[in-house]
Input
Amino acid sequence: MCGAWRSWARKDASTALNRSLCPWLATAFARLSLVRALYAILAVQVVLGATFAVLAATGNIPFTSEERVVRSDRFDSRAAYALLREQVELGPRPAGSKASRELGDRLRRRLPHGSFARVPGGLRNIVGGVPGRDPGRKVVVGAHYDTKDQPGFVGANDGASGTAVAIQLARTLKPRQVRPTVVFILFDGEESPRGTSDGDFAQRGLRGSKFIAPDFKDAEAMVLLDFVGDRELSTPREANSDGALWGKLRAAARRTGNGAAFPDSTSGGISDDHLPFIEQGVPSIDLIDFDFSCWHTRCDDLSAVSERSLDTTGETVLELLASL
Output
């Protein structure tokens, strides 16, 4: 700008103009730039304030404690997978069989405060638990440890995976680490007896859960772990599962970086060990990836499961329990 002044000012006055006008113009432009910058900052603050107000009004404020990122290496998936393998190596484990009773004895010893709860027909549920900070509150986590009674079926995913995750969750939780007391139940006799058709399952199956559910009608939630170990794990909400509790599970999955394994979709309703608890008025959810090609076939072996899927489920449920 000062150069422009020099281009038309008289030669004998150029020096004076340069000395008097240029500093004034420089100061004026500096002040104008500062004012513009302050207005820009103010405008940004107004926009941010308005945006925050809208988010607060709609309950969508990001980075609150609900969506915080948490540690996701608390669950020992290696130990869980070792227990899954141990179950499979026992071979078929139909309810009441020698292999099932041997497994039951091992599981009782590993489950904190584990004890047997008798089920009619010579079966045994296994019940244990970890006390919470609020003794008046109770949450049930369950899985079945028997397998379908058919030759060669070892149930790596259908039976062993849920049992392995449940046991490891119980061994990971410390007393009074979470608010509710967490009761762990390993159900016997989930599968219907040999010779019964799939159409008789609702009547002849779920023997352990049907018998024990009335004892836990005061529980505030029930989380069932069933097909939770298959390699391509994708667990949508099962149609009978409580919507509010499932929403908390999905939020826990997102916080632990496992949201993709629990898509925002719903699958068909499934007759499973959570139904007797629903009948008692307990909000319940069933973690089951029923889109599993090896259901009740011999290929449900170690080749069908992965340690990573056990970890995904374990970390998510551990965070869910911490949020209740």
In short: The first helix runs from residue 2 to 8. Residues 72-323 form a domain with the Aminopeptidase fold (CATH 3.40.630.10). Residues 196 and 204 are 8 Å apart (CA to CA).
